[in-house]
Amino acid sequence: MEMNVVILDIDYVTYEDKPIIRLFSKHGERNIVLIDDTFEPYLYVISDEIDACIEEINDNLEVVNVEKIIKKDFQIENEFIKVTFKHPQELAKNRDKLRDLDTVIDIREFDIPFYRRYLMDRDVIPMTEVVAIGDEIDSFLTLDSKKQDITIIKLTEDLKRVKEYPQNFRILSFDLEVRNPHGMPDSEEDEIIMIGVASNFGVNQVISTKTNSDSRDDFVNQVSSEREMIQEFVKIIKENNIDILVGYNSDNFDFPYLKDRARLLGVDLDIAMDGSDVKYIRRGYANAASLKGLIHVDLYLVMRRYMTLERYTLERVYYELFGEEKIDVPGERIWEFWDNGGEELDNLFDYSLDDVISTLKIAEQTLPLNLELTRIIGQPLFDVSRMATGQQAEWFLVKQAYFDDEVVPNKQGANFANRANAEDNEGGYVREPETGLHENLVQFDFRSLYPSIIISKNISPDVMVLGDVENEDDYNISPEHGLKFKKSPQGFIPSVIDKILQERFRIKREMKASDDPHEKKALDVQQQAIKRLANTMYGIYGFPRFRWYSFECAKAITSWGRQYIKSSIKKAEEFGFYAIYADTDGFYAKYKKEKE
Predict the structure, then answer these.
(1) Which listed residue, of 208, 447, 510, 553, carries a Cα 20 to 30 Å from 520's Cα?
(2) Are residues 443 and 551 in the same domain?
C-alpha cells in the first residue's frame, strides 16, 4: 500500500536480535506506525594499516560487515573503515574493544544515537510529510492494529519526502492544581483537585470533583472522584487524537505527579499512540516525560532559552510575551480557595482555566519556530525543544557533515573540557553607556556579525594553520593573535553557515515579494529559525564539550569583531558622531562635532 503520512516521532525496538525502527505518524485522523527493519548501526575506524586492520576486526569482533570507504576528515579525503554491527547495543559493547586493537588509531561516530542516525542517513525530517510504501500488517510485538486503533505498515521502500508546506497539528495544553495544606504537595498524600485543558480545536475546560456557581458551568466539567478526573483527562487526549501535548514545568511537576496519583488510584495513563504509559528518559541533565507518538513539549524549558528573565514563572513569561496580567492565585493558598468554596472557589476555577489558556497561547506563539528548527535540524521536536541552542547547532552540523561526506569529530573528554573552560577569550567589545538621558540617537549594527566574520575570514579548524607560512597573502590573519586561516578552500563550518544565510536571504526576498499574509507569516518563521541557528554557530567554537570546539577559532572571531566595531566607531567620529554605548555588534551615537 502507498500512503502519505506526517512523521511525528521515532524510536527503535528489538525483534529477533535486530533493531527495528518505528516511525509514529499521522494520515489525517488516522494513527500510522511505520516499521523499518532494514537499517543497521555503524561507526568509522581510522587506521594506517587498512587491510591489516580489517583482518584484525574480523578476527576479534562479531560484526555484520567491514568495508573500506572514502570519506572526508576536515575536507581532506581519507580512507576509513566502516564497521557495521547487528544491533546498537553490540556497537556500544564493542567500541572499546575496537579502539584497543593494535591497528586501530581512532574510531569516529560511535556515539550518534541509532534513531538519530536513521533520520540523517535516510533524510527523514520529523513533522513533515513523506510517502510511505509497504505492506499493511495486523500486529508487531506490542502493536495491535485493532486494539490500539492504528494502521501498521512494514516498509518495503525508502520513504520519499513530499514538498514541504505548513502542517496543522492538534495541540492540547494541560495543568494540574493540587490541594497542598502542608506547602509543597506530596503525591503520596495530596490529591489532584483540578485538571485544566485548553486546545486549538475548541476543547477548553477544567475537570474537577467540585462545581460551584452556574456562571462556571460552561467550562467546569464535574466528575465524582479524583480517579474519574484522571480518566476523563485520558479520554480527552484519546478521543481528540492529540499531536502535541504542552505543559509548563510539566517534566518536573505535572507528569511525575500525575503518574504517581494514577498509580495510587489504579488508572492507566495509556495515552501514547502505542497504548503505553508515560516514560522518563534522560535529556541533558534532567528527565523528560515521553509518550510514543504523542509529542510532549515542556514550555518552561523552551522559554528559558528564548528569553532572559530573572524569573520564568508562567505569569512573568505570559506578561513579557503579551503585555497582559494573567489571573493569579498564591500557590500556598490554593488549598484554602478549594476548601472555602464560594467566590474563592470560582476564582480558583478561573485561575485553572487561565493557566492552560495562557500556556496554549505561549505554545501557539513559540511552537512555529520550534517546528521550523525541527525541520532544519532534522531531529524530533521532543528532542529539539529540550536542546540548548548550541546543541541544536551541533546536530545541524552533524546532519550537514553526513551530506558533505564528512566524518564528524569526536567530543572531547571531561578533563579537556575543564582545561578549555579555564581558557580566557576576551569576547566582544563593550563600551559602557554614558549616564544621562540622551536624545536624537543613531543606531548602527552589523547584520549577523559573527556568522559574517566566520564566512568572510573562513574561520574553521580545517583551514587553520598554526605557525609560520610561506605566503601570508594566501591567509586571513586575525588581529591581536595572528591566527591564520586559508582563503581557500572554504572551511566546512563557513560553508554550512554560508548556505543557510543565503537560504535566509532568499526566504526574506520571497517574503517581501509575497502578498499573501499567511505565506508571509510562514516565511518569517523560517527566516527567524535560520537566523537563530546561524547566530548560534559561533558558540560551537566556544563550548568545550561540542564536537567543533576550537579556542583559536573563537579568539579569532571575537578579535575581528572588536576590530570591526572599533573601526566603525572611529569612522563615525570622522562624520561628527561619537558613540555613547557599544556592545559586541553595534553602537549608539550622538551627532556632535565635539564631545562636551
Answers:
(1) 447
(2) yes
> What is d(CA 42, CA 22) in angstroms, rounded to the nearest whole number?
19
pLDDT of residue 216: 80
Specify whether the CB–CB gap between 192 and 176 falls below 8 A: yes
How far, in Å, CA of 582 to CA of 429, rounded?
7
**What is the C-alpha to C-alpha distance for residues 393 and 454, in angstroms, rounded to an integer?**
15
- Residue 550 belongs to a domain: yes
* Confidence at residue 414, expressed as pLDDT on a 0 to 100 scale: 54
Domain that holds residue 242: 171-377
| pLDDT for the residue 408 | 95
The rounded distance, in Å, linking the Cα atoms of 224 and 5 is: 40
| pLDDT > 90 in the chain, percent | 71
Highest-confidence segment of 348-357, 424-433, 502-511, 576-585: 348-357
Q: Does residue 206 sit within a domain? A: yes
In the numeric block, the cell 495509556 is attached to 270
Q: How many whole angstroms from its chain centre is CA 475?
A: 36
DSSP codes, 155-207:
ESS--EEPPP-PPP--EEEEEEEE--TTSS--TTTPPEEEEEEEETTS-EEEE
Total domains in the chain come to 3
**How many angstroms separate the CA atoms of 588 and 104, rounded?**
57
Q: In 3D, which of 569, 595, 502, 576 has the Cα closest to residue 586? A: 569
Q: How is residue 100 annotated by DSSP?
A: T
For 519, residues 6+ apart whose C-beta sits below 8 A from its C-beta are 511
